Amino acid sequence: MQIKQKGKENFPRVCVIGAGPSGLAAIKNLQEQGVTDITVFEKNNQIGGNWVYDEKNNHSSVYETTHIISSKRWSEFEDFPMPAYYPDYPSHTLVLDYFRSYANHFDLIKYIRFNTNVLQVKHTDQHQWKVTFENNLGAHEEYFDYLLVANGHHWDPFMPEYPGEFSGKLLHSHQYKKASAFKGQRVLVVGGGNSACDIAVEVARVSPKTCISMRRGYHIFPKFVFGKPTDDAVAKIRWMPSWLRQKALSFFARILQGRYAKYKLMKPDCGPLEIHPTINTELLYFIRHGEIFPRPGITHFEGNRVHFTHGKSEEFDTVIFATGYKISFPFIDKQIADFSNSTKIPLYRKMMHPDYDNLYFIGLCQPQGCIWPLADYQSKIAARIIMGTLKRPDKLHEKAHEEMNKPHYRFKSHTRHAVEVDYHKFRRELLDMLEA
Fold it and tell me: Membrane topology type, per the record (predicted)?
């Protein structure tokens, strides 16, 4: 094992974990603020994180037909717009091209060590981070003054457990790549979020029977409202008080789509801003055309038969769980950061650890919109604090506690919403820090 110590004290060594969208934003902002000693560890052989499509690579959760669910206007980095010829909702191929252009434009690749897996990070008595990593030459250790964790939170699949055993094929949406693999199969998709609805629609094109199981009601919005991308339309009412925005969105959804009961879907038991919204134009269309059949929650398995909460059961060949991801950082000591079962995250602005002033999480948020611009602002804050041009806030324990007790909305108390934020409110909060 090789060990490399830090550089000069006046030139901080900064480690970034991950070269996906959040990691790229972190590198760009560190470089922009004058940090020259930057090392980025990326376990794959290219940038892009989950936006790299590879049928043989289980790391990537993007599938063949993936498009972004937030429009390009609200997804692009502030200082690097997406090309004018991009559609409102670019495909994963265009998105990856965009990230490559971003990395080339700001000359970011030179900092990245590809095919390098971080095994452990440990805080030392010298107030540094000892990073143990592995590449094709073996295991190594290096020391850094600052650590930016930007590897994302959509990589460790959450698989619910049910009594009994299913004799067919069980998989997570993380493993799903293309619909053609399910041609001729009876498929049950479990979940009501964006991935679940997208996959159900795609599979229904080739499957003789596609059902979607939801334990509760979801707010489902089309991708376009009155000819505009939905997030564009929602942005126009961001000035409204929270309660009024909720009523306005519920009203428009009712006008556009009618009652959920008409689709044999459960009515949501909370407002549209209190759970993560589902953006899908085709699901309701497919349901009313008899291509997708809604089902309630699962009680248990019995051979190839799935039993549901309404007392009925059906046979399936494949069950796809689109049930989200655990917030997991296996390389960090659990005493420092263990959020896997948390319903709230004790990090100020979803990035600052109250006990470690040289540790920052970038992109650890789930906005009702796109993460990338918010990760950009978070990394600007971290970079400026590192270089001393922005003061780190005082009393972070109190601030983090207050933030947890006063979320933007009364989000459902569930690990699914542990890092949920309102896009526009959170953006304003981050900008206020930068403008202070």
Answer: Single-pass membrane protein
- 379-395 as b/e: b if 16+ CB within 10 A: bbbbbbbbeeebeebee
Q: What is the DSSP string of 234-298?
A: HHTTTTS-HHHHHHHHHHHHHHHH--GGGGT-PPPSS-TTSS--EE-SSHHHHHHTTSSEEE--E
Rounded to whole angstroms, how far apart are CA atoms 285 and 264?
A: 13
- What is the Rg, in whole angstroms, of the alpha carbon atoms belonging to the chain? 22
Instruction: Express each pLDDT in 407-436 by its tens digit.
Output: 776 666 666 667 889 899 999 999 999 997
Q: Which pair of tokens denotes residue 118?
A: 């971080």
The confidence band for 317, taking pLDDT boundaries of 50, 70 and 90, is very high
Amino acid at 414: H
Q: Return the DSSP state at 432.
A: H
Class of residue 109 by CB neighbours under 10 A (exposed 0-12, middle 13-18, buried 19+): middle
Q: Is the pLDDT of residue 4 over 50?
A: no
State which amino acid sits at residue 40: V
- 367: nearest Cα among 376, 380, 354: 376
Distance CA 292, CA 152 (A): 32
Helix, strand, coil content of the chain in percent (nearest 5): 30, 25, 50
Q: Which residue in this structure is represented by tokens 């229904």?
A: 204
Distance CA(242)–CA(259), nearest Å, equals 23
Q: Please, what are the domains in the chain?
A: 2-155+325-435 (3.50.50.60), 160-321 (3.50.50.60)
Residues 244, 15: Cα–Cα separation, whole Å:
43
Least confident of 3-7, 74-78, 304-308: 3-7
Contact 216, 268 (CB under 8 A): yes
